[in-house]
Write a structure and sequence with these properties.
heterodimer; A: about 500 residues; Beta-lactamase; five-stranded antiparallel sheet; elongated; B: about 475 residues; mainly alpha; two-stranded antiparallel sheet; 17 helices; globular; disordered N terminus
């Protein structure tokens, strides 16, 4: 009977070995994944074990805070200063609903758990102090943000302001917004607040970050990109006649494309066509450059790519399409779509003499002892257009503000270049169009140009009244003024 | 059953002049008492910042129980295996610490879970009392052989009883008498091993020799299939009517192992495995309780994804993950998030979280050591009944450890059984102390220098013929 006994002994040993292997698997191989599962309560318990580090503005003022609570699991709770205005920047950190955006990406820094804070933690542990979180210093400018948020008022839309020379994000507004303090805790009230903000209960989608995560048809603001393509291709120059009929018959169709208003669009030069936003000219240019080349030129401005600022911005698209659609894409009215961030990057690249900078909104990560853990250095994504062509584009955009469709954005003593847009949407243009304005402002004192993009989704005004210059340009103007005031 | 095999070790087989190893046992017991006392102090310091008030009493109590057990072993089973008692004491002692630690949880107090450690201490004392009683009154394990068929009846009654009591959390494994809940399966485990050992000892020749060869396998005769089919049917009935996967698996597995040992026929294992798979798949196809368990096993996070609220299997996995390699330290984990049953079925998750991979490996090794000492006892035993009983008890213990720990770690579908000695539950701790006592008794007989009376000549003959 001993032979089978030995085999049973081996079998029982194997059972134990199987347990050991499994234990190694879940406690070593999978441990990280299990520990960081978003629904694992331990993540939140650790997150709120100590006062969370803060998110600061470029002027060093915090826009977040922490307050002590009485709950078993969570010692502290997140608070926000003017949470509605800053929510598109901070995201949220909630005991019940995890975290998002900066709060999520820099969770390790803010809680003090990041590997780079290991030394700090060890010192704290040895000296018997509680663990402390580090801070996240953003590039945001309180005045620019406030100007944008207040002029947007109750309109639905988004606005982005960039330092064109560095790519630093100065303002990032999305409306309607939400107050992340309202669901930072664990209570039923927090749950209700959260539910009332969800898309299914709130068609306005307050939690959608429109500046980074929503793409819109860019409308006429895309003509800047088309003009850049025209100049870069060498097929056109700024003051050359473009040989365009008015109306222009779209290729392969019997559809005639006209222009808004009574402007000298027939056979207009690029400069004149930009000034009056001539659809016919830019549709023809896009068609003649061709789909493949248009994709290439728009990609130079950052299209067809996600950007991380470090919050993810969705990709703006210029897709492959048929010839009539490609012609319409030249005026931003086809399958091409863009985020407000992307259009701000277009304006910034033009203002920065053709150099496209990587947009970012976190300048420094700072340890609890104020040591800098990580610092952003401005990075060039690439050259969108040559310096000469950038100059020509600037002339065109400045003409728009000086004497074209964008006069509402003029600022005394400042060179402003811009482009309006009114993008139609809905079946047969049935819904209120999107009002766009992209612009930049430069002073002579050598301070970096400020680039801005504003989109307003739907406003309760008459359709005819909706135009980039009436709705979006004032917001852009307020942001540029706020940014320049800060410099002076 | 010639002892010409090459075991090499002289500690258990050869006769005459063997050290009794009682002093080894005593030294080991010292550790087995000290380690839980340190663990207890550790929990108190971690949770309340001070040494627990009951520490001295606990240490003295555990030491006293272990001391008495040791003295009784010295007197009534002087040649018994020296490791089993210390391992059981250590596991039981640490189990008490873990239960006390979970008693301190504020989360569990909010759920109105009362303190469980005092009761568990009482059950442990009762368990050790039963352990002592077995050592004192069971003069020779072969006495049990007389009760083969009575055991069968008792085991059947114990297994069938829970069907008539209401299900507790989906499984009918409890009987309630006067407000006290008993898990009869834990006792049935021992009694059924006695029955199988007695039955197989008598029938094994018939089962082993009378067979037909088919495709290179020795297939049993049709009429010899009767017993295994009966046990199989009974296991399935348990599974269906008591929705208790663990008990069902345990009994069937136990029978197949013992059948294999008794007959040395591999074909029984293949046959048994086939039956088990067929039965399990068939039952799982219509029994929602079993289906749920299987689904939780295949995808432990499906409930989290679907409802947003984690269920116990997910919480248990997170507890293990949170432990990592070294664990959070006693008293510093959050395994109480598992909530209900964290002290019983899921107690191993607390080990995983607070002692980490290191602690889990140590516990599995301790269980493994206890099991292998049991099988060693079977190897050393000189009578077939003792061999069969020892291997039966050991493998039942092994299967139980595997099924529970594997279930909690999502290695296999979860079943409602308790971790021997560790988990909260009176029936479990009492039954397992009795199990260890019987193993000790068998090992005492096996290692006793004066040769025991020769086993029945019939059995001897067949062995010689075959080896």
């Amino acid at each position: 009977m001993n032979k089978p006994l030995r085999r049973v002994a081996i079998f029982c040993g194997l059972l134990m070995v199987a347990l050991m292997i499994r234990s190694n698997w879940i406690q070593f191989v999978q441990a990280d994944e299990l520990q960081n599962h978003p629904k694992n309560r331990r993540v939140a318990i650790e997150r709120y074990q100590q006062p969370r580090g803060n998110i600061l503005l470029s002027n060093g003022k915090p826009i977040t805070g922490s307050t002590e609570t009485k709950s078993i699991d969570f010692k502290f709770k997140r608070t926000y200063k003017n949470g509605k205005m800053w929510a598109p920047v901070t995201g949220y950190a909630s005991q019940a609903f995890d975290a998002s955006q900066l709060e999520k990406i820099y969770d390790g820094i803010l809680t003090g758990d990041d590997d780079r804070l290991f030394f700090n933690r060890t010192i704290d542990m040895l000296t018997g102090k509680d663990q402390k979180g580090g801070n996240v210093i953003t590039t945001l400018d309180a005045e620019v943000q406030k100007a944008a948020y207040e002029t947007m008022g109750d309109k639905k839309g988004a606005a982005v302001a960039l330092n064109a020379e560095t790519g630093a994000i100065l303002g990032l507004v999305s409306t309607p917004s939400y107050d992340p303090s309202s669901f930072a805790g664990m209570s039923d009230k927090d749950g209700e607040a959260w539910n009332s903000l969800q898309k299914k209960n709130n068609p306005d989608e307050p939690m959608l970050n429109r500046a980074l995560r929503q793409t819109y048809p860019p409308g006429s603001t895309f003509k800047v990109v088309t003009a850049a393509a025209a100049l870069e291709s060498g097929m056109y120059d700024i003051d050359e006649k473009t040989d365009t009929p008015d109306p222009y018959r779209l290729p392969d169709t019997v559809t005639d494309l006209g222009n808004d208003g009574n402007h000298p669009c027939e056979d207009a030069s690029l400069r004149v066509a930009m000034q009056w936003s001539c659809n016919t000219v830019f549709a023809k240019i896009s068609h003649e450059i061709g789909n493949e080349k248009m994709i290439e030129y728009s990609e130079k401005f950052g299209f067809n790519k996600e950007h991380f600022v470090p919050v993810r911005a969705v990709e703006s698209v210029y897709p492959e399409d048929n010839r009539p659609q490609n012609a319409m894409a030249g005026i931003g009215q086809a399958s091409n779509r863009a985020t407000p961030l992307q259009m701000a990057m277009v304006a910034a690249a033009v203002a920065n003499d053709g150099k496209l900078m990587e947009p970012y909104m976190v300048d420094q990560l700072v340890a609890p002892n104020l040591n800098v853990v990580e610092e952003h250095t401005p990075k060039e994504i690439g050259r969108a257009v040559s310096p000469e062509n950038a100059q020509k584009l600037q002339q065109m955009m400045e003409a728009v503000v000086e004497k074209g469709t964008g006069t509402t954005a003029q600022i005394d003593g400042v060179t402003v270049g811009g482009k309006t847009g009114t993008a139609q949407h809905g079946e047969n243009n049935s819904k209120n169009p999107y009002a766009w304005f992209i612009s930049y402002a430069k002073t002579d004192d050598g301070s970096p140009p400020i680039a801005v993009a504003v989109v307003i989704e739907s406003a309760n005004v008459l359709r005819d009244d909706i135009a980039g210059s009436k709705l979006a340009a004032p917001v852009a103007k307020a942001m540029m003024e706020a940014a320049l005031d800060g410099k002076r | 059953m010639s002892t010409s095999h090459v075991t090499g070790s002289h500690t258990t087989i050869s006769s005459g002049g063997l050290p009794s190893r009682r002093n080894t046992e005593l030294a080991m017991l010292g550790f087995a008492v000290l380690i839980p006392v340190f663990a207890y102090a550790n929990v108190g310091l971690a949770i309340n910042g001070e040494l627990p008030a009951g520490m001295l009493a606990y240490g003295l109590g555990l030491g006293l129980l272990a001391g008495i057990a040791h003295l009784v072993v010295r007197k009534f089973a002087p040649y018994a295996d020296p490791l089993m008692l210390p391992i059981a004491t250590l596991l039981n002692g640490l189990g008490l610490v873990f239960i006390w630690r979970l008693d301190q949880s504020r989360r569990l107090k909010l759920l109105n879970e009362g303190a469980a450690a005092p009761n568990q201490l009482m059950w442990s004392a009762l368990g050790i009392a039963l352990f002592l009683a077995v050592l004192v009154f069971l003069k020779d394990h072969r006495v049990l052989q007389r009760y083969t068929y009575i055991s069968m009846v008792v085991a059947l009654i114990l297994l069938i009883l829970p069907m008539f009591f209401p299900a507790v959390y989906g499984a009918k494994i409890w009987i309630t008498i006067g407000g006290m809940s008993i898990q009869p399966g834990e006792f049935a485990k021992i009694i059924i091993a006695v029955f199988f050992a007695g039955y197989l000892m008598v029938k094994r020749d018939a089962l082993a020799l009378a067979s037909r060869r088919f495709l290179g396998l020795y297939l049993p005769r049709g009429r010899d299939l009767g017993p295994i089919l009966m046990i199989w049917a009974l296991s399935l009935l348990i599974l269906i009517f008591e929705t208790d996967l663990g008990t069902s698996l345990l009994f069937f597995g136990l029978f197949v192992v013992m059948l294999y040992v008794a007959t040395e026929r591999t074909s029984w294992i293949l046959f048994g495995l086939t039956l088990a798979v067929v039965g399990a798949v068939a039952v799982a196809s219509f029994e929602p309780h079993v289906q749920g368990r299987v689904q939780d096993w295949l995808d432990p996070f499906h409930v989290v994804r679907e409802t947003g609220n984690p269920n116990q299997p997910a919480q248990a996995l997170w507890a293990f993950g949170a432990g990592g390699i070294l664990g959070t330290g006693l008293g510093q984990g959050h395994s109480d998030l598992i909530q209900f049953a964290v002290k019983s079925d899921y107690i191993f998750a607390t080990v995983g979280e607070e002692l980490g991979l290191t602690g889990v490996m140590a516990f599995v090794l301790l269980y493994g050591l206890l099991i292998e000492r049991g099988i060693r006892t079977a190897l050393a035993a000189r009578d077939p009944f003792g061999k069969l009983l020892a291997v039966g008890l050991s493998s039942a213990f092994a299967i139980q450890v595997f099924v529970v720990a594997g279930g909690v770690m999502a290695l296999i579908p979860l079943t409602g059984m308790t971790m021997p000695f560790l988990a909260q539950g009176g029936s479990s701790v009492i039954a397992n102390w009795a199990l260890v006592a019987i193993l000790l008794k068998i090992s005492d007989t096996a290692r006793r220098p004066a040769p025991a009376p020769a086993p029945s000549p019939d059995a001897e003959m067949t062995q010689v013929v075959r080896s």
